[in-house]
Each structure stands twice: as C-alpha cells, then as structure tokens.
C-alpha cells in the first residue's frame, strides 16, 4: 500500500473514531436532559387571593410569580401605577402598603394580601384631587408624566407624616425616584408651597 493511501486511511479511521467517541459522549448527556425534562414539575397553577385596593376587596386568581404592579395594571385595570425599570430602581410603580410607600414591582401580589393597598387612583375623592396632585398641576411639576404617579404617592405619604416638610425632607421623600425629564425643582416647589414653607421661591 502506498504512503498516500496509508495516510488517507489513517485520517479516515481517525475521523470515524472521533465521531464514534463524540456520539458516545453526547448520548448520556442527551438521555440525562430528557430525563430531567420528563421529571420537571408541571407549570404552577394560578392561586386564589384577595387584594384590598383603594378601600375595596378584589378576589383574583394569579400566577404565584405575579407582582403587585402587574396585578394592579392587569386584572384590576389600575394603569396609573407605572412599570418602568421593573427592578425597584426608579420608583415609578410606587403605591402605599398600609400607608407606607413601596415599589410594587418588587412585591409579589401574594405578599400584599391582607394589607391595605392605595394607588394613585385612590388619592382623589371623586372629582376633588388630592392636595399634592393639585400642587403638581399648579407648579407644572410633570412633563412626560411617567414618573409622576410614583412621586405623588411618596410626596402624599410624606405629608401624612409631616404636614409641613422642609426642603430636605421633601428631597428625602423623592430619593430613589428617577425623573428623566428633570422636573425635580418643580416638584420641590410644589411641595414647599403646599406646606407653606418660607423656603419656597416667591
């Protein structure tokens, strides 16, 4: 047999051996993956829960992983609560849980059961706006408006605890709120004017 044929035969035999080894190695992995898939638990079923929102109880069936923000905007239709970052970094989704501001995108709906939830829709009384809402309008404290509901909720919560906040207290209440339009000075003015603070501009 010539040298050329011997080299060709060697390469052919090596390729066949490598292919057989590859198949032999892949087969157990594929079998293990199939076994894992076959024994995986079925998709979790929706669970029944009751959320008390803006003074009313709502009976719902939700997937366990549903966040409070998703529940509010979805089945409850309360779209005033915005979802922006969906990671608790911008506070656009702020609502009250038992009177305290929370990021609803970071709270499971299941964990909100048994608590009193207040959204931006729950602040007004009929046609009468909440004082913070009215102050925001008067001072043009909103531009695109996407962050506004969350800011209003935090500012209204501040007034519940501190009726006459100073500038630092307002800034602290707004900490964590991301306004891409940069309306912070107008928000501060609205709150200081509402509080009758001498720090506001004439």
Helices, strands, pairings?
Blueprint: H1 3-39, E1 47-53, E2 56-62, H2 68-73, E3 94-97, E4 100-103, H3 109-112, E5 116-118, H4 131-138, H5 148-161, H6 167-174, H7 184-194
Helix pairs in contact: 4-7, 5-6
Domain count: the total is: 3
Rg (C-alpha, Å): 29 Å
- CATH topology grouping of the largest domain: Ubiquitin-like (UB roll)
Which geometry do the CA atoms define? Answer: extended
Order of helices and strands: HEEHEEHEHHHH
Spans with pLDDT under 50 lasting ≥5 residues? Answer: none
Write a structural description.
By secondary structure, the protein is α+β, with helices and mostly antiparallel strands. It folds into three domains: 40 residues; 80 residues, Roll (Ubiquitin-like (UB roll)), CATH 3.10.20.30; 79 residues, DNA polymerase, domain 1 (Orthogonal Bundle). Helix content is 44%, strand content 12%. It contains seven helices and five strands; from the N terminus they run H-E-E-H-E-E-H-E-H-H-H-H. It has a five-stranded mixed beta sheet. Helix 4 crosses helix 7. The longest helix is centred in the N-terminal third of the chain and has 37 residues. It is extended and about 95 Å long. The protein starts with a helix and ends in an 8-residue tail after the last helix. The relative contact order is 0.11.
């Amino acid at each position: 047999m010539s040298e050329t044929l011997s080299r060709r035969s060697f390469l052919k035999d090596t390729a066949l051996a490598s292919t057989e080894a590859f198949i032999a190695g892949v087969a157990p992995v594929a079998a293990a993956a199939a076994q894992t898939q076959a024994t995986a638990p079925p998709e979790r079923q929706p669970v029944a829960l009751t959320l008390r929102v803006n003074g009313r109880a709502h009976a719902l069936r939700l997937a366990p992983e549903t966040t409070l923000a998703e529940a509010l905007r979805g089945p409850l239709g309360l779209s005033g609560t915005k979802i922006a970052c969906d990671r608790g970094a911008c506070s656009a989704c702020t609502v009250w849980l038992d009177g305290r501001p929370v990021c609803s995108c970071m709270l499971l709906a299941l964990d909100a059961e048994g608590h009193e939830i207040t959204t931006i829709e729950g602040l007004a009384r009929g046609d009468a706006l909440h004082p913070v809402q009215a102050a925001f309008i008067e001072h043009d404290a909103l531009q695109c408006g996407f962050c506004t509901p969350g800011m209003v909720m935090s500012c209204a919560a501040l007034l519940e605890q501190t009726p006459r906040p100073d500038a630092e207290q307002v800034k602290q209440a707004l900490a964590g709120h991301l306004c891409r339009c940069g309306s912070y000075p107008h928000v501060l003015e609205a709150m200081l004017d509402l509080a009758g603070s001498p720090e506001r501009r004439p």
